[in-house]
Amino acid sequence: MRPYVTRDDKFIHASGLPACLVDLAAQRQVNQHKLLRGTGVFREDLLQPDCHLSLSQLIRLLSQFQRLMPGHDAAFQLGHRLFPDQSAEASAVAYSRNLSQALRLLSRFRLQLAPLLSAYRYRHQGFSYLLLSDAVGLEQHQYQFVAELYCCLLVSASRHLLGQRLPLYFEFPFPRPRHIQEYEEHLGLKLSFNRPALCIRFQEAWLSHPLPRASALRQQLALRQVTATDMQHTLIDAVSACLRQQQHSGLQDVARSLGMSPATMKRRLKEHQVSFSQLQDRVNMQQALYLLTVKGLNNETVAQKLAFNDIPNFRRACKRWTGLTPSQLRALSPG
Amino acid sequence: MSMSFSLLKLHPRMLMATLGVISAAVVLSFSIGTSKSAAEIEWLDVVGEGGIVLLTVVWQFFLLISRPPGRVTTLLTIGLCCFMFSTLLDALDEFIHYPQHALLPLFESVPAPFGMILMTWGLYLWHQELLTLNAQLRRREGDIREHAHVDLVTRLYRADYMREQIAQHLSQPAGQFCVAVVDIDHFDAFNRRYGHPEGDRLLREMAELILMNVRMKDLVCRYAGDRFILMMPDLSLKKASQQVQQIANAVRHLAFKTANQAVFHTLTTAVVEAKQQENCEAMLSRLNQLLEQQKDVSQESPRATLCYAGR
User: Fold this and answer.
1) A311: number of CA atoms within 13 Å, CB side?
2) What is the reported pTM?
3) Domain count, chain B
4) pLDDT class of A333 with cuts at 50, 70, 90
5) Which residue out of A37, A152, A156, A181 would a mutagenesis test of the B interface target, given it has the greatest number of B Cβ atoms within 10 Å?
6) Which top CATH class is A235-331?
7) Residue B257 DSSP SS3
């Protein structure tokens, strides 16, 4: 079996994000036919208990939702309503004993609970960093919408689980939007824009904070109801993971380890509107960001770790990835 | 936003009248005259005069889907009908030869000016009607009307509108004013417990309550989510804080009924006064920082997440 899902595999429960989205749109008087047009999903389908959508259907639905919803808060409103849904996966997360366990389960069921963005977590000096990136090939304006959605989901879910506000710091890879009031109201004031990557930061201490809703037995019950699937990755995730494990592998190596020909992998990546070298850049950029801004290492060490022959090359690459030089990046380090 | 046709079915008489006028004009002209041959028809005139008729019908349609029945609607519809009758006869005579007929010029030229007089009278009444409606909109609207900026849930203007109004006030040299935000505590928990439709209803009623507690010259908008923003011109910080406190008191005593129980709410509030040489974004950022501090204070004193009263 393939270790990843394609854009056309139908694996997303209709009862989660899709149903929630259709209901919210109806409350805001959005025309249901226009919302569902061209998605291949009909209202009656959503009432079937085993209805599943593919990634491309979900993306189309989401883009029509974004276009048709009035006001600037559609993504945030949706984010507040998503967790917990009816699924066994969400219940398993909801009954976690602490945030650490909740995050582990979230990453295990990522394809069900948050299929559009992939997260890469690292820890440093008392802080946890969630580095989020597009997992499915989204357009730029849609990426911002999805970022708003998931950030709000995280705020809302963590408040639900903890029973209080979790202080989160957000960094967004786009300029300060005009509808900044929605960010301030739904995400808080710890926001920075024009950053190289989408990153959420919080204090490690919160990870072990006991959750008032914890229930080991109910969680086990929920875990038993999870329909088994080995797939935790989209193709973009799978390629990125390969690149992360073996830093210098090329197209050939990655294609081989994913069990397909280089030509097939190129074609499939193109369906996700991304190329192999773009993914290589993205992974390298994430590594460089971590090493420079979080660990505060100097240029020589980072260039060496990322296998650059000389410093000027590394500096040029940095500039190309992020628009900033290594020293400017280091100056961004979170206080 | 799309069109809504729900008002159309409230106008059976006006629709009948319109159809009646169209058929009367067609019957009248064909009963008197005889058709022209194709070679005689001036197509440029047909397009020009036919276009006027079509546009009149479109105006009539927009009128009827936009307004509930009433005196203004009736006057405007009948006026448009008369005007359309004349233009329709005018357009039809491109297709028809009329014999010398004494009454025909009368049919063609009299209804149009008569209809214009009716429409003029209707527009005057419409003006008066709008003055009444404007008074109803006080405290919800500044001196500009921009329906695209109205929030669908609370029917208040959104943050963009308030930003423009604040910027405009800041640009005027003399003018003390204060801006406040009020934020409903634990709105998230309320939504989870009672559902988002009830949350929307709470926001709507909260908006009404806030409006009732401000002066006629104040402006209330929805900022984002469960946060409202108020502009209070010609008011000192002290007086403005008092007024915001009065709103908070009113909200504390609001027994919002849902699922057969009364749910009580509290507000977190922040007020700032406009400073010289400050721009709108700086002022809003100062305001939101202050609110954030207040929220931290209210979070530190733990109390029941939501207050209930039995049925």
Assistant:
1) 7
2) 0.81
3) 2
4) low
5) A181
6) mainly alpha
7) strand
